[in-house]
Amino acid sequence: MEKASNLLLKLSRRLFNNLDEQEIFVETLIHPKPFHPCILWCKEKPKDSPFSVETPTVWQPQFIDRLSLGEKPGQHPLHEQGYFYCLDFSSVFAASTLLTIPSPVKLVFDMCAAPGGKSIFAWKCLQPELLISNEVIGKRLGMLISNLKRCQINSSVVVSKDSTLFAERIPLSSHLVIVDAPCTGQSLLAKGGKAPGCFHPTAINKSANRQKRIIANSAQVVAPQGYLSYMTCTYSPEENEEVCEWFLERFPQFKAVEISHLQSYQSHLTSVPCYRMFPQDRLGAGAFTVLFKNTDEGEKNKVDMEALSAVWMNIAITSPTSQ
Ligand SMILES: C[S@@+](CC[C@H](N)C(=O)[O-])C[C@H]1O[C@@H](n2cnc3c(N)ncnc32)[C@H](O)[C@@H]1O
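That is the input. Now the predicted structure with S-adenosylmethionine docked in place:
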């Protein structure tokens, strides 16, 4: 993108009061610069790193390394052997809310899972007994399955159904439900990619409505005292803070959890504690994240995997038992 569109300029004025901040935000989108590559170690890190590693941020988990510019981790033989998964550092930021969830965790359900970054992050940091990764778009299933297989994410199961079905069939069952929601993908521009129409109000409203439907269905899958993690890789408030406000009005049993390690990233666009990373922070292309807790007391429902396999397309990476 050579010149900022009026819609991008308008968005920058909504996001930042300060003129310099507006300008630098727009500049990072119209003249993108590369970000440091990043990896998540699925297996134990070798003592001597095969890569040149950047100084970690204070909140960065030990199983993440941000690498020097120019490193190509995807081409290293350890990648094929499943030692690590390559992801954007914005994904680490967004998923870092999960680091605050107390163990033990039985069941993690990832509603929007392909290609698998948040599923693998949750598996690594929470060590659940079972991870269920759902991807509704058939042609995205292959990459999800191959990533979970390559990284040996046991025990995990891949499913492919609309979120409505899970709300009906496995209500109040999961300790954690992750909603890394489909969005307008505005942050792709900061990576030099394309996201046609991503600032257009029609596209933003359509996306926000889909996000509200997914988060509402996902909330019903969360067990009492369980967690719901919502995140996007886009900047517009309609897809982020406004989804959170809408959600809390309709599901008052949920409250947003303060994430102390992300305090300096707290969004000033709402009173709900939620967090944003912007591309001008130079860590990643940008993300929005919030962690909700279901404050209801009560019994968690069991998920009978045998019964489910009759109705769902379950592709078992390993064979789970009842949760
Ligand atoms: C931001 S991506 C997920 C990235 C993934 N969580 C990761 O970390 O690798 C959003 C995903 O939501 C999926 N999706 C699209 N429409 C959906 C819907 N109606 N319900 C659930 N997921 C949907 C997309 O196919 C896409 O894979």
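The domain at 90-294 is CATH 3.40.50.150 (Rossmann fold).
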